[in-house]
Amino acid sequence: MATAPREFIENLQHLPQAVKDAWFRLGKAPESEREESQATFHNLFLHIHSVRVHVRTLKPTLTLGLGIMATSAFLITVITGVLLMVYYKPSTDLAYQSIKDIHFTVSTGRFMRNIHRWAAQLMVLAVLLHMARVFFTSSYKKPREFNWVIGLGLLVITLALSFTGYLLPWDQLAYWAITIGSNIANSPRELTDAIGITKWMDPGGFQKRLLLGANFVGQDALIRFYVLHVFVLPLALVVLLSVHFWRIRKDGGMARPEDPMGGLAEWGGELRPVFQPVATKTYGLMALVRGKRATVNRGPENTVMSWPHLFWAELAVFMVTVAVTLVLSYYSDAPLKELANPAIPENPAKAPWYFLGLQELVSYSAFMGGLLIPVIVVFGLALIPFLDRRPGGEGLWFGTAGERSVAVKSLFFSLAVTVGMLALTVNYGWLRNWFPEIHQLWIILVNPGSLLVLIFAAWSLYILQRQDSVRHAAVGLFICFLVGFTILTYFATVHRGPSWKFFWWPSQWPVH
Amino acid sequence: MSRLDPPRVSRRSVLSLASMGSFLAALGTAIAGILRLPNPAVLPGPARRFKLGAPDEFAVDSETAFAEQNLVLFRDNDGFYAVSTICTHLGCTVARSKDGFACPCHGSRFDNSGRVVAGPAPRPLSWLELARAADGQLIVNADNEVPEGTRYRV
């Protein structure tokens, strides 16, 4: 008898196992370090990770899992976002109704929209905190300068995604946010008007036309923001995110204090021999072998296998993110205001929390607060790793000597300055109240926002001089940025009411 | 120079330069084209000329708000004038207040004739061009500004 039929039958019997093996490649849970490493780099999705990871970077207090949390939130928004696209119609006539449909009629639609919205908010928060974490652990230092800049790009895209996202429901918030946003893009005209060159050079008008595609906020604007929100920006985010992850590996894993060369390092409560890896190299299988045979349960450096140690940690953070999002989405609905009404905005017309600090700045000057200060801040942050080049403190919270005290001093200083500036503005008004005929150029250049930036920069230079440390100057500046952002956001959230007037509490707002 | 002298520039480097140059030129053109498309050649939009009504409908020293058209029509002894209620700061609609106009979004304040009193607005509120239609009604052209203080006499 021919052997082929028998072979066929046998293969048929083994079909489930064979398919499973093909799917998982290894075909079973890894049992040795060699198999653990193969599990990592023989798998497309796990291959983002290095095979081994330094024990220090697994310490939860180093990273707080914020990067993974931001990524998890992004994944959640992608999945829920695609689901929302099934019913959402990007048209001025239908958009609002389709959101109502999603909210009231579509099975699980309301829950999905809530999840989308909460995950987006969580993403913004996680990205901001992640940046603060990287800064305070000196993790931007050489060779990670470039990744810090990429991270800033990701922050900007995250904010742009949020902005384009809340325009889509075409409710009152959406309509007036597009109106204000496109006029902020138009605001260089404030400057060109003030110096009288708009006729020849009008970058503001160009930006506004590019955003709106028309002279008014309508269908053209909506479809542009839709395309940005569901395609252009997510694509840009994924591209930059890939570079971000890739650089983590290529820059030698996460920032951490260097292990003593040829010495011992503490690991799991005991001292073990380590060797110092070269930061520019990635160690694959060759790092698994020490001496003539593969080592078990111990790395030649102070590392452990990514599988399973890192993966479980990441999965845990992901699940926490999912859980937080689900709980928030269950108890709190994403808001939907009235249908867009071009005749009259809400009073007050407030942006989401992460833009309220900007809204306060914009209420001093559209060009300075809406464009110039954000650009200055992003550029200032991007320059930090290129100006602070002295190694030290990597992977340690407030790692260099005296950093903590500089941070505390800067905290009190920036708190006093920001609160004082707001109190001054609220009580005494600003230039226009004192000199009604003042030229617009003065309003643009000298306002509470630009003064805050100047004072913060001066404070940083003062620390530079006094402490004789670039890192300390950077810490001072970064604390000022964080405090300024937080206080302005809080102030605009709680203390600004109808007509953007000051109120102690929202309960004191006049009732119509 | 004889034919036996070695060429000073190799053919390969010329070709490399040419290919690199053509690539950069193409890239630049492509980027220009990519930016050109979303920059609208025609700005679509409804006409912003509105009929407001017969002049007799408005008493002397009165003001009439046209919310849909975002303007307030005033009439005093000198004639008519229309003040736009679109804030010159970031485009919110200003609300009429006791002594002028107030913006709900960023707190700009204007006096009765639209001059900036406080806040971030860079320019006074626009005064809009008024005219008469063939049937005698007042017409406002919200796309055209007139200098502050201009009155339209019937």
**Count of beta strands of chain B:** 10
In the CATH scheme, what's the topology name of the largest domain in chain A?
Cytochrome Bc1 Complex, Chain C
**Silhouette of chain A:** globular
Biggest sheet of chain A, strands in spatial order?
1-6
Count of beta strands of chain A: 6
Domains of chain A, number: 2
Output the CATH topology of the domain at 49-146 in chain B.
Rieske Iron-sulfur Protein
Q: What's the Cα radius of gyration of chain B?
A: 29 Å
CATH class of the domain at 49-146 in chain B: Mainly Beta
Identify the CATH homologous superfamily of the domain at 49-146 in chain B.
Rieske [2Fe-2S] iron-sulphur domain
CA distance, first residue to last residue of chain A: 95 Å
Structural summary, described in words:
The complex is a heterodimer of chains A (512) and B (154). Chain A has 512 residues and is mainly alpha-helical. Chain A has two domains: 24-341, Cytochrome Bc1 Complex, Chain C, CATH 1.20.810.10; 347-512, no CATH class. Chain A has 20 helices and six strands. In chain A, the strands form three sheets. Chain A has a two-stranded antiparallel ribbon. The radius of gyration of chain A is 27 Å and the shape is globular. Residues 289-299 of chain A have low confidence and may be disordered. By secondary structure, chain B is α+β, with helices and mostly antiparallel strands. Chain B has a domain at 49-146: Rieske Iron-sulfur Protein. Helix content of chain B is 17%, strand content 32%. Chain B has one helix spanning 11-36; strands spanning 49-53, 62-66, 71-76, 79-84, 95-97, 100-102, 109-111, 116-118, 127-132, 138-146. Classes of the chains: A mainly alpha (512), B alpha+beta (154). Chain A binds chain B through residues 176, 179-180, 182-184, 187, 190, 193-194, 206, 209-210, 213-216, 218, 220, 224, 342-349, 359, 362-366, 369-370, 429-430, 432-433, 436, 440, 443-444, 447, 498-501, and chain B through 35, 38-40, 43-46, 67-68, 70, 89-93, 95, 97, 102-107, 116-120, 122-123.
